[in-house]
């Protein structure tokens, strides 16, 4: 198609229009439909599409082999400025002046630096105040914006969907593909709407909402779908809270989660370093304001939740769907009819060292981790600090790590005096990174240790060999650190 | 990438649901900056009794004799039979790299996690989705020396009893896998379309194109 022909489609009344769009029916579009249609470069006969990628985020773990591939084939990045890199998985969260002690980790972080220098990609290194967890840094810098397609070699890229961006995790082959072509070959997913109606009760946070959803629909409930989260309780959330919800869409099996753009979204992006400026800003806002599902949009599946019925959540098993309200008891596998599920429960109880019927509030904790791309933003740190109420961690709790999501969040928290609250409670105040979410650096659990963690995965060994993870909100994690066991934060609130 | 056409091979049964990519290849091995050599650490925490570390020599590590891949009858298996939602969790492509390096070329399950499923096709591994009842039946049928023949061109699986089970793979993916094609080279055949897209997009979203 000649460029002039395309331009004609676009400008008429100044409204962005979608070329290449094949559908002619007049039914409304979902937010996902709009984002998808806006990025289709080419459609194959079998329905798979070449999708344009607006932003790629890179980190040290899933990129080295992609850069190797670029070198071997002699390819250059298609649009180098669309890539932004930051080391997060392997970086130490203490003693940074000494560098990285583990030589294998050090080589991986150094390799990212070398690759970025060689290919001309902007990287925030460990000494940069902007360094942090890739999914915290992207929105914080305005490097991921509403209406963008965003990819990263990390499944929690779904986080950026909170800004009405189509964002999803990819493997290393696709990292290389996006670097070399600024596109990916994708097949469109189905549309799911999860509506959380009404108002949440005291002590119930974004984390509890998303854990309750996963507990209900299961870790494969969203497989093959893009999930849009809507309803009053989602609209009520801050941008930080919305990021927590979309972050865990992948834990429900959906590669991408989405939340419609509204005033909160637009305000969040005002004056961010990479945000559009001047007339560009006004034009972007006019476009962003359309980033919501039409009233008559058709979803393949709609699931509704009553926000008032959601209680503070604690995971008890080795899959994020193994989660219950804090006032519940550990399930009994003999009550499960499905043999595959029964076996999963038995295996999980054995790994976790828990008994059927045991109260969740009776689980004793050895360590507490407050951080990760799920819950390391300023609002999360404020919630954790507020739950301390001048008390100290329980003597039985060996270690409480508080790991901010970025250098800028750390700075903000210190300006608010949150670091002093944590330190006074005998919590450890650390440097930004992924830390004990996946224990690639020195922060980890020892075999058999129970950890209240604000992260996203409770898989076997995730936080350290033999470690036992309980996924919770920041307020629950801090309260558990004080008590030494889980407590019902809804009653405390 | 290695092409996949037909495969007749031994089947190993991994009777677990929701096998996550952390279990397939634990995080400490992701520190490698290479693409090869992950096979010895496949399912590391289930396969060995000690704690695995990168670059460890696995030949003398204590084996978990109960784990299926350590049982003598499944040595040299190239087809993995497993349960629903295989490959969930982390996007790490190290998971298919480890499976491929170990020797697996096909995985049969009632369902796969999306990212893992996609990653398999980039690495010459064929993930096959079959109805849960069929997978259940294959688990029950499986005896020592049980082999299947997979034909990607015909999209069929032949069982030892002579039964033929059909499956389907997206045309585009099937073509690329059958021919072992490099995705990037194929995409770059559309370079003019990518440039045309950028030109029109720059008109409606100029703020995305202000880069130096």
TrEMBL record, chain B:
Q: Which Pfam families match?
A: Aconitase_C
Specify the domain of life of the species encoding this protein.
Bacteria
Give yes or no: UniProt keyword Ubl conjugation: no
Catalytic reaction list? (2R,3S)-3-isopropylmalate = (2S)-2-isopropylmalate
- What GO MF terms are annotated? 3-isopropylmalate dehydratase activity
**Enzyme Commission designation:** 4.2.1.33
Looking at its record, which EC class is this enzyme?
A: lyase
Q: Which UniProt keywords apply?
A: Amino-acid biosynthesis, Branched-chain amino acid biosynthesis, Leucine biosynthesis, Lyase
Q: Which residues form the Aconitase A/isopropylmalate dehydratase small subunit swivel domain?
A: 1-132
Its UniProt pathway annotation is: Amino-acid biosynthesis; L-leucine biosynthesis; L-leucine from 3-methyl-2-oxobutanoate: step 2/4
Q: Does the keyword DNA repair apply?
A: no
Q: What's this chain's function?
A: Catalyzes the isomerization between 2-isopropylmalate and 3-isopropylmalate, via the formation of 2-isopropylmaleate.
Give the UniProt family note. Belongs to the LeuD family. LeuD type 1 subfamily.
Could you tell me what this protein is called? 3-isopropylmalate dehydratase small subunit
Q: Which organism is it from?
A: Methylomonas aurea
Q: Quick one: which gene encodes this?
A: leuD
């Amino acid at each position: 198609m000649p460029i002039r022909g395309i331009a004609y489609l676009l400008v008429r009344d100044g409204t962005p229009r979608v070329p290449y769009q094949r559908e002619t029916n007049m039914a409304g579009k979902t937010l996902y439909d709009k984002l998808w249609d806006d990025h289709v470069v080419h459609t194959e006969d079998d329905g798979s599409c070449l999708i344009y990628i607006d932003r790629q985020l890179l980190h040290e773990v899933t990129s080295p082999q992609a850069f190797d591939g670029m070198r071997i084939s002699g390819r250059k990045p298609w649009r180098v400025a669309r890539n932004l890199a930051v080391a997060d998985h392997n970086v130490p969260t203490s003693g940074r002046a000494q560098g990285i002690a583990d030589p294998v980790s050090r080589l991986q972080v150094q390799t990212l630096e070398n690759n970025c220098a060689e290919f001309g990609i902007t990287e925030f290194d460990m000494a940069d105040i902007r360094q942090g967890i890739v999914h915290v840094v992207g929105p914080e810098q305005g490097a991921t914006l509403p209406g963008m397609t965003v990819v990263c070699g990390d499944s929690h890229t779904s986080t950026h969907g909170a800004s009405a961006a189509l964002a999803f995790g990819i493997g290393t082959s696709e990292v290389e593909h996006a670097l070399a072509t600024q596109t990916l070959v994708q097949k469109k997913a189905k549309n799911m709407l999860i509506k959380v109606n009404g108002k949440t009760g005291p002590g119930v946070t974004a984390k509890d909402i998303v854990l309750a959803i996963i507990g209900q629909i299961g870790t494969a409930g969203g497989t093959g779908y893009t999930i849009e989260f809507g309803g009053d309780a989602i609209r009520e959330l801050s941008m930080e809270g919305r990021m927590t919800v979309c972050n865990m869409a992948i834990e429900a099996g959906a590669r991408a989660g989405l939340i419609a753009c509204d005033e909160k979204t637009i305000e969040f992006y005002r004056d961010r370093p990479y945000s559009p400026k001047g007339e560009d800003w006004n034009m972007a806002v006019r476009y962003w304001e359309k980033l919501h599902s039409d009233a008559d949009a058709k979803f393949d599946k709609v699931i509704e939740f009553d926000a008032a019925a959601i209680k503070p959540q604690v995971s008890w098993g080795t899959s994020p769907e193994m989660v219950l309200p804090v006032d519940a008891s550990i399930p009994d596998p003999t009550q499960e009819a499905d043999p595959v599920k029964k076996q999963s429960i038995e295996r999980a109880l054995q790994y976790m060292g828990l008994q059927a019927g045991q109260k969740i509030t009776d689980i004793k904790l050895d360590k507490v981790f407050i951080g990760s791309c799920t819950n390391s933003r300023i609002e999360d740190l404020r919630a954790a600090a507020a739950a301390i109420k001048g008390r100290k961690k329980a003597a039985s709790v060996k270690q409480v790590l508080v790991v901010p999501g970025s250098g800028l969040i750390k700075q903000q928290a210190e300006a608010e005096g949150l670091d002093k609250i944590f330190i006074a409670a005998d919590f450890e105040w650390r440097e930004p990174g992924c830390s004990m979410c996946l224990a690639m650096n020195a922060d980890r659990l020892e075999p058999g240790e129970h950890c209240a963690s604000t992260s996203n995965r409770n898989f076997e060994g995730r936080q350290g060999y033999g470690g036992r993870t309980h996924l919770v909100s920041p307020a629950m994690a801090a309260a558990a650190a004080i008590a030494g066991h889980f407590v019902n934060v809804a009653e405390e609130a | 990438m290695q092409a996949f056409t037909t495969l007749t091979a031994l089947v190993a049964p991994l009777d677990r649901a929701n096998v996550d990519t952390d279990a397939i290849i634990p995080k400490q091995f992701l520190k490698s900056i290479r693409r090869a050599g992950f096979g010895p650490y496949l399912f590391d925490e289930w396969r060995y009794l000690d704690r695995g570390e990168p670059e460890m020599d696995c030949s003398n590590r204590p084996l978990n004799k109960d784990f299926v891949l350590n049982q003598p009858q499944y040595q040299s298996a190239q087809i993995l039979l497993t349960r629903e939602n295989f490959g969930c969790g982390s996007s790490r492509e190290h998971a298919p790299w480890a499976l491929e390096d170990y020797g697996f070329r096909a995985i049969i399950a009632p369902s796969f996690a999306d990212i893992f499923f996609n990653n398999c096709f980039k690495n010459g591994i064929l993930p096959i989705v079959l109805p849960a009842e069929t997978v259940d039946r294959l688990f029950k049928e499986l005896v020592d020396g049980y082999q299947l023949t997979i034909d990607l061109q015909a999209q069929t699986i032949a069982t030892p009893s002579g039964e033929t089970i059909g499956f389907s793979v997206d045309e585009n993916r099937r073509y690329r896998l059958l021919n072992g094609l490099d995705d990037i080279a194929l995409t770059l055949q559309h370079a003019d379309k990518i440039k045309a897209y950028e030109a029109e997009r720059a008109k409606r979203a100029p703020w995305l194109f202000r880069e130096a």
